[in-house]
Amino acid sequence: MPNPWVFIGLFIIIAAIIPIGAIVVALILGPKKPNPIKQSTYECGLETVGDSLVQFKAQYYVFALAFLIFDVEAVFLFPWAIAMNKMPLYVALEGVIFIVILVAGLVYTWRKGALEWV
Amino acid sequence: MIDLALVLEWVIKSLVVIFMLLGGFAYLTWFERRILARMQTRVGPNRAGWQGLLQPVADAVKLVFKEELIPARADKVIFVLAPILTVVPATVLAVVIPFGTQVILFGRQVNLAVADINVGILFLMAVASVAVYGIVLAGWSSNNKFALMGGMRSTAQMISYELALGLSFVLVALMADSLQLSEIVEAQRTMWFVVLQPVGAIVFLIVTLAEVNRAPFDMPEAEQELAAGFHSEYSGMKFALFFMAEYQKMIVISIIAVTLFFGGYLGPFIGRFPWLGPVYVLGKVVALLFGMVWIRATLPRIRYDRLMDLGWKVLLPLVLGLVLITATGILLADEFGNSLVWSIPVVSILAGFLTVGLVDRSLRRKFNALR
Amino acid sequence: MTAEQIIQQILFFISAALTLGSAVMVVATRKLIQAALWLIVSLFGVAVLYALLDASFLVVVQVVVYIGAIAILFIFAVMLTQRDQRDKGPQLNKSWVLAALVGLATFGGLTFLVSSWTGFGAAAAPIPAGTVDMVADLGTALVSVDQYVLPFEVASVLLLAALIGAIYVAYNRK
User: Which residue pairs, CB below 8 angstroms and at least 24 apart, start in B146-149?
Assistant: First the structure.
C-alpha cells in the first residue's frame, strides 16, 4: 500500500484544475469593457467614504482565542476516544478529568461575560 | 515500484468523485429552486428542457459569457485566488468518504473510496477549518466595507461552530473506536449511530447548516444588512464558484452525515450486491438535502448575537456533556453488560430536553425583562 | 534508487523550498496581512513534509491547529489593528551582516552535529502497514500511568491557564 497522501495530493490538484479552468474559460469568452464607474466599489450606490479597512471590535479576537483553546482540546480527545475502551476504567477516566478541567475554562469565560456578542 | 494500473485507478476514481460533485451541484440548484417554488406555491424554472431539467446548463452557458468585474481598488491576485480556495476544500472533503465496499471491475478489486486514510474524521475537521480562508480572503481583497464585514462575520461563525462539529466527531469516534470512515460505517452494521446518539446527530445537522452558511444561519450573505456580504464584489464565473462551493459543501456534508450517523452505504442486500452501496448513499443524501431545502423554506434568518450564543452557550456545552455521557455509557456497558449501552440515548435525550428547557427559560426571562 | 524514491525526493525538495521560501516572504513582505498569508503557506509546507513521512495524525493536527486556528487568530489580530498596515521603514538594520554570520554559523554547527549522527542519510525503514494502529497507540500512551498521563493532564491545565490569561488580558470589562 503506497502512501495515501500522494493520492490526496493528486486529488487536490485535480480538484483545483476545475475552478481554475472555469475562470480561464470565462476570461477568454466573456466580454471585457472596463470603465472607472463599473470598477468602483459597490456600497449600495453611495460613494465610498474613507478606507474600507474598518477597525473590528476586540470581540472577534476573544472568540478566536477561545476557539484555539477548545480546538486543541478536541484534537487531544480523538486519540483518547478511540483507545478508551481498550483500557481499565480508572485510566479511561483520566480523559474525563481532561474534559472537566477545560469545562472549568468554559465556565470562567462565560461568567466573565466574554461570550456575550454585544 | 509504482503500480501504473493503481495510479490510473485512483485518477479515474478521483475524476468520478469530482464530476459527480459537479453534476450534483448543477442539479441541486435545480432541485432547490423547484422544491422551494412548490413550497411557496410557485412553479419554478420549467422552461429549459422537460420540467426545466436543462436549466443548470442554461445557467452555466450564461455565466461563461458574463463580464468579469474586478474592482479597481481590489487586491487582484487574492481576489481571483479566493473563489478557488473556497471551491477546493469543498471538493477535497469527499476524498476520504467510502461510497461502498469492494466491487470487481475489469477483473480488479476496486475499493469504492478514493483515499480511506486512518485519520479520516480528523481529515474532515482539518479541511473544514481550511475552508474559512476562501471567505476571509474574498472579504478582505474586495476592499469593500460590506464584504469585509461579511467575511469577518462568516469566519467568526464558522470557527464557533467548528468546535461543536469537532466534538460531535469525537462522539462518533468514541462509539466506533476508529477514525477511519470505512470502519465507522462497518461499526453501524448492527445499528445506525443515529439510534444510539440521537441528540448528537441533531447537533451535527444543526452545526453543518452553520458551517455551510445555509439558512437560517446565512448571516454572511444577509442581503438586507450586508449587501450579500463577502461576495458583494464578485460577478460572473467567480461568483458562480462561490455558489458552487456552497452547494458542493451541502452535498458533501450530507454524505458525511450519512456516513457518520445514518449507516453510510449500508442497506438491505449490501453483502450480496456491493454496487448497491452508492445507491443507498445517494438515496439518504437526497433525503437530507430535501430537509435542508425545507428548513430554508421554513425558518427565518436568526440574529447574529443569537447565532453566536447558540454556538457557544448551547451547542458547545451540550456536546461536551454528550461526550461525557457517551464515554460513561461505553465504560458502563463494558463493565456491567452490553444492554447498558442504552443508557447513552436515554440520558442524552434527557440532556437535550434539559438544554431546550434552559434556553426557553432564558429567552422568556429576556422577553419579560423587555416588557 | 527506485522511481518511487526519486519522486519522493523531488516532492521533498519542492515542499521544503515552499516552506523556506514562504518563510522568507513572511519577513520580507511589507503588508501585514500578506505576511500572515505567507505564514499559512509556510505552515502548509510543513504539513506536506509530514504527509511525505506518512505521519497522518501530525498532518491533520498541523492543519487543524496551526492553519485552522492559530493563523485565524493572526488574521483577526491584523484586522483589529488600525489601518496603515504597511511597514515603511528599511527592511534591514545596521547589524544585518553580524546577524547573517551568526545564522550561518548556527546552521553550519547544526549540520555538523546532525551529520555525525549515524542515522544521517540512511533511509528509515518503513513502518509495516496494518500491524499497528498508531492513533490508538497514541491515545493509550496519553492516559497510561507509566507513560504520558502527567503531560496530558498538565496540558489541560496549561490550556486552562492560557484561556484564563487570554480572557483576562483581552477582555477586562470595567
Answer: B146/A43, B146/A44, B146/B226, B146/B227, B146/B228, B146/B229, B146/B232, B147/B229, B147/B230, B147/B231, B147/B232, B147/B233, B148/A52, B148/A53, B148/A54, B148/C79, B149/A54, B149/B226, B149/B229
